[in-house]
Design brief:
This protein is mostly beta strands. Helix content is 11%, strand content 62%. It has an eight-stranded antiparallel β-barrel.
Length: 222
Amino acid sequence: MTKNHIAFLLCVALFIAIPGFAKAQSGSQSSNVQQTTEGIQKRDNEFGFWGGISFHSPTWIGTIEDARFGNIGLRYGRVLAASKSVALEWTIDAVPVAILSNPRLFIIQSGSTFAVQRTRKTVYAWGVSPLGLKVNFRRDRRVEPFAASTAGFLFFTEDVPVAGAARFNFTFDFQGGVQIVNSNRRSYTIGYKFNHISNGNHSHINPGVDFHMIFFGFSVFK
């Protein structure tokens, strides 16, 4: 997955989000003043953390099966625009810890004979996802459905997902879920994401890995 592919996918996510935002915005065109002070507001800042874990590794884009993945992240977000019912937010995530585990084949020598052994290997990583867009619907309500997409990179301690691939890998995901915002402007998030990891073909081996993930988060709007 190249940088151009990632940028294209984020643009697609943005164009999908804009029509819904524009429709909600049209109902409030007669006034330049936001009609409600509840919920998520334009120019709000979001500070939070989240954690996710995979429960399945399909082969939609990548080719590695039976892989497991988990990560935790710190989030900053800025609400760029808000209509009566929809909010558009830019997000950036720092990922201090990510863990990828998948089976690998190793050649074992015993005297003059060789055997192939299949063993699961776990590799750690850190990274950043500086490109993120999130759209909250019903943004003036307590329970707010959302759709989002992020893109960035992970730097692993070893080549992943196989030897000879790369330690530096690009990532992107598509997300959906609900964000529960209480009266103190604290929020709890639960959602699903499709996550893809690959080295963008800067290595001669680029099998890539896909994940279905669930994630949970907590954040504060200020």
